[in-house]
Write a structure and sequence with these properties.
Length: 255
């Protein structure tokens, strides 16, 4: 189940713009066709930056432990729902809602203070286990049809994107130690989920093969980008690139 959904306040402005542009379309465009698409594919996400975070522990005295966590990206499962309306013979407006999710480990390297000696850190390495990265996006697109055949349509599109990210982050490292405390053993990590959103952009290309008047099969490639700031476990800010290259296939309906 997806952990992040775009708040309703972010849906109002794009929906209002879509409605106003449709209302402003001239009467000559009465033959405009609405389209609805349902589909899915893959989103190639970028790696989140490796950052150094600090944390407290009762065994550290007045010092703090530190760790670096390298969060992986990769191919995320992706699905979307779209609606569009033709405003002119080759110009259309579309609104797409999409979700994607990927889960992977984070590599951890930690430096822990010695309980008996000041400024004598011990190091350990480990893996966080499976961490979730979920993106929810809303894309508002202007689409220009470069080929408008009866059976085959090819279009280019682009516009603003609102993208929300929910990401599991490592907040502390768990460990075991025994006298004389010169070595530590990694036993796990504490995880917490953080969310943020940002406005970015998208561009892409769309090909539709129509089978009759109503039903078609769509193939699209979209690149989207934005930068979301998340609250790091130690109170600092972590900037994460969201979006990426998306490929999708959808079932398309027009009326």
């Amino acid at each position: 189940m997806m952990k992040g959904t775009i708040p309703m306040r972010h849906l109002f402005a794009p929906a209002l713009l879509l409605a106003s542009l449709i209302a402003a379309a001239p009467a000559a465009a009465q033959d405009s066709r609405w389209t609805i698409g349902l589909g899915g594919g893959l989103l190639t996400t970028s790696e989140a930056p490796t950052g150094t975070s600090s944390f407290d522990h009762a065994l550290f005295g007045g010092e703090q432990g530190e760790f670096d966590a390298a969060y992986a990206g990769g191919d995320a499962s992706h699905y979307e729902v779209s609606v569009g309306v033709r405003l002119r013979s080759r110009l259309a407006l579309g609104l797409t809602w999409s979700e994607s999710s990927v889960s992977d480990d984070a590599a951890i390297m930690a430096r822990l203070p010695h309980p008996l000696y000041y400024d004598a850190h011990r190091t350990l390495e480990g893996s966080s286990g499976s961490l979730s990265r979920d993106e929810t996006a809303l894309h508002l697109s202007l689409k220009w049809t470069v080929r408008d055949g009866e059976a085959l349509q090819v279009a280019l599109f682009g516009g603003p994107s609102q993208i929300e990210l929910t990401h599991d982050l490592v907040s502390a490292v768990r460990f075991d130690q025994a006298y004389p405390f010169d070595e530590v053993t990694y036993t796990g990590a504490d995880i917490r989920s953080e969310s943020g959103d940002a406005v970015g952009y998208h561009v892409g290309a769309d090909v539709v093969r129509w089978f009759g008047e109503t039903v078609g099969l769509g193939f699209l490639v979209r690149f989207s980008g934005a930068s979301v700031d998340l609250d790091a476990p130690d109170g600092e800010s972590m900037s994460v690139d969201v979006g990426g290259l998306q490929g999708a296939v959808d079932l398309r309906f027009r009326f």
